[in-house]
Specification:
Aspartate Aminotransferase, domain 1, four-stranded antiparallel β-sheet, Aspartate Aminotransferase, domain 2, 37% helix, alpha/beta, single chain, 371 residues
Length: 371
């Protein structure tokens, strides 16, 4: 063996281009100090939990764990199609919407392609780009809202995918559907527009649409959704996407076999049909968002107007009153919010809206901290 061969044999395998540029995704905190009651408001989980019908479906499905799940998730796609009036041939299901975003990257991105997303957009978009060897292109927002003109100005011949979270996390802001249509109209037809509508069920604005009609009338638009938020099934990891049939046929080629487990399929189908449970979650969120926003603003904190199930809370530039110090104080009391430094907000925290009791406890604890 030559010296070169010996050195090569002793070298550790190296990651491909772009992988070591990825920051490891850090989820919201999930543990309180020992002996203190936990109030977890760090991951945008619903305080109402899952539908009782979904729990029953899980119990029934658990009696057949020796069997592989349906590789096409037909029962889940049928339920989604019924609720939203969609052709199941235009649906694909995933292990959370995260997997669907990764599948889109795997299907459409080549080395040095460009992927556009906004400066406060979901961290997964950059991960998808770098994993595929593509170039992330970050576009500035205007007043914590996606700026269609800025996005269009960033498009080049190398642009392949645009990710638009609408509503966005962690800001909770959205852009009207007219603006989404204007964005789409300004794009070359070979650019994929991904509308990430994870929080769509919470939005109650006349000028908002999740993207169903735009997908139906286009050949380059994909809408992604999740069961992790309003449906309360985050632990099961269920996502779905609606897209033109030509795009579904491409995504099916990179989807892993049996990528959605049997419990998830059964629970998701039951959850999406439980309109009563969904309506309760929407009503609770509408009341909570108005009340908590008003109470935090009374205490001198700026809150970004949100249409999701969370609030982005900005802290003063005062020693002893910063977001990091507030986070430490809240954690000591068992309250877990989400630090959002990685999203470009070094002096803000994201608060998931919880139960009435938990929301009141957060407000009173912040009052103590700010006093």
């Amino acid at each position: 063996m030559t010296n070169t061969q010996s050195q090569s044999a002793n070298s550790a395998p190296q990651a491909k281009k772009g992988i070591m540029d990825i920051s490891i995704y850090m989820p919201g905190k999930s543990a309180a100090p020992a002996g203190i009651k936990l109030h977890k408001l760090s991951s945008n989980e619903t305080p109402l939990g899952p539908s009782p019908k979904a729990l029953k479906a899980i119990q029934e499905a658990s009696e057949h764990l020796e069997l592989y799940p349906d590789g096409q998730s037909d029962a889940l796609k049928k339920a989604i199609g019924e609720v939203y009036g969609l052709n199941t041939d235009n649906l694909i299901c995933g292990n959370g919407s995260d997997e669907l975003l990764s599948m889109i990257g795997a299907a459409y991105l080549e080395t040095d392609d460009e992927v556009i997303f906004t400066e406060h957009g979901f961290l997964m978009y950059k991960i998808v780009a770098l994993t595929s060897g593509a170039v992330p292109v970050v576009v500035k927002e205007t007043n914590e809202h996606a700026d269609v003109d800025a996005i269009l100005a960033a498009v080049t011949p190398r642009t392949r995918i645009i990710f638009l979270a609408n509503p966005n996390n962690p800001t909770g802001t959205y852009i009207p559907m007219d603006e989404v249509r204007r964005l789409h109209a300004g794009l070359p037809t070979n650019v994929v527009l991904v509308l990430d509508a994870a929080y769509a069920e919470y939005v109650r604005r006349n000028d908002y649409e999740a993207g169903v009609e735009l997908v139906a009338s286009s050949q380059n638009v994909i809408m992604t959704r999740t069961f992790s938020k309003i449906h309360g099934l985050a632990a099961l990891r269920i996502g779905w996407a609606y897209a033109p049939r030509s795009m579904i046929e491409i995504l099916e080629r990179v989807r892993g076999p049996f990528n959605v487990n049997a419990l998830a399929i059964a629970a998701g189908a039951a959850a999406i049909r439980d309109r009563n449970h969904i309506d309760k979650a929407v009503l609770h969120n509408e009341k909570s968002i108005l009340h908590v926003t008003a109470e935090l603003e009374k205490r001198g904190l700026r809150v970004t107007p949100s249409v999701g199930n969370f609030l982005l809370v900005h802290f003063p530039e005062t020693t002893g009153k910063s977001a990091a110090e507030a986070d430490a104080y809240l954690t000591s009391k068992g309250i877990l919010l989400r630090a959002v430094t990685g999203y470009g907000f070094p002096n803000a925290l994201r608060m998931t809206l919880g139960t009435d009791e938990t929301n009141a406890f957060v407000i009173s604890t912040l009052s103590e901290f700010l006093a």
